[in-house]
């Protein structure tokens, strides 16, 4: 399922619900519908930038790597698969982060699910 974030400050941002959930939980927002007001935008930016900084300090977890190796290349039968390319939290959050920056600068709200 997709979530569409909208604001008068920027173009729409589409995100899978499962990926938006982590971001919205950090902001204590409902994943199905809600609003980040222009007044809340500076705090939301601070929270997300802090999480991005923390997530960059940690590489792919050992559990993920172990799972990948368990299903790929163990007995040579999956040797044609490409290397894992995990999409980082910062990459997933970037479009919404930019929308929040524009919303803050323009004094606009960001809404979804309405």
From TrEMBL:
Residue numbers spanned by region Disordered: 55-84
Origin superkingdom: Bacteria
Pfam short name (any one): DUF1840
InterPro entries hit by this protein: DUF1840
Name this polypeptide is given: DUF1840 domain-containing protein
Organism, as annotated: Massilia aquatica
